[in-house]
Specification:
The protein contains one helix and seven strands. It is mostly beta strands. The N and C termini lie far apart (45 Å).
Length: 137
């Protein structure tokens, strides 16, 4: 069976970058930790919420790298001398990535009750009409 790509459609010009973006997204390695929600807060804004119980502000980094929002968490736990009878609270390091479309900007990040909220805004697209003159050859 032949793999269908965007290049297979002759009317889809210039979408090679989108195809590479989809492939990159599939390889981000997000294994499900930490759990997250994505909600649309208005017609042009979104909020990503990650459950990061046990992580403090200093344990988290948020970066935008090549149109990819990357949230990393790493706990510097001092567990020497502590004896756990049961350890069910995940404190492992993580990296969670989200690919951002052009025009989507990262706003503020808020930590509240063990939840990290990251606000995103999308600029309203402008309608562009362009008339192309035909030259005689």
């Amino acid at each position: 069976m032949t793999k269908m790509t965007l290049a297979s459609y002759p009317h889809m010009l210039g979408f090679e970058q989108l195809e590479r973006l989809l492939e990159r997204t599939a390889k981000t390695g997000n294994e499900g930790y930490p759990p997250f929600n994505i909600e649309q807060t208005s017609d042009f804004s979104y909020r990503i919420t990650l459950a990061v119980a046990g992580f403090g502000d200093d344990d988290l980094t948020i970066t935008v790298e090549d149109r990819q929002l990357v949230i990393r968490g790493r706990l510097d736990e001092d567990i020497e001398g502590r004896v756990f009878l049961h350890r069910g609270i995940a404190g492992r390091q993580f990296q969670r990535s989200f690919v951002l479309a052009d025009g989507v900007d990262v706003g503020e990040a808020i930590m509240e009750n063990g939840l990290l909220h990251i606000d995103l805004t999308r600029s309203k697209p402008e309608t562009v009409v362009q008339t192309i003159n035909i030259k005689k050859g």
